[in-house]
Design a protein that fits this description.
This protein is an alpha/beta fold. The protein has helices at about 15-25, 45-55, 70-80, 100-115, 155-160, 170-175, 195-210, and strands at about 10, 15, 35-40, 60-65, 85-90, 115-120, 125-130, 135, 145-150, 180-185. Its EC number is 2.7.7.60.
Length: about 210
Amino acid sequence: MGADRPKQFLPLAGEPVLLHTLRRFADPTLKVQQCILVLPQDQLEAWQQLCAEYAIALPHTVVVGGATRWASVRNGLAALAAHSTGVVAVHDGVRPLTSANVIEATYQAAYNHGAAVAAVVPKDSVRNLSQQGSYALNRARLRLVQTPQCFEIGLLRRAYQLPELSTFTDDASVVEDLHPIHLVEGDYRNLKITTPEDLLVAEAILTTFPI
């Protein structure tokens, strides 16, 4: 991002990106029982300051993350020790435009199937690189994975008891050796804030196409 602060703390429509994200899951119609916010140790004070500055009163528990995404999810999962059953969602803090419909559908699919992930069909043509050059892939058979990624909590705990591998890119890749992953239709507006132009697009969506 090249900004002066972590991207989850950057302003979006006058509020931190992370506040928008947290608000999505605090929607009372979703009936989420507990929100765990995982942050690096050196970002805790900055988040506390933002909570004071923006009077953030949405219920959530802050947990210190680890050196990798895998370790951070494991730490967050440990904070749910009081829950022996149910469905847990893992979500990117920099996906602030996730609709309640996508969240609810992914939770419901995980309740029915054990593991579910929001995903969309690629809009662009896709090519695979090889030593001989590149070749086209059938994008109708490909999906771009988003979050939330939802799992039966016991299944996710079993997956995170296994050793971490370099091939783990998200929670679905951690779980898939234990259980099939059900795909749920995501939303193209559910973008991940990664580069400066993403913030411009996100603000345009918020002001033009309210979710």
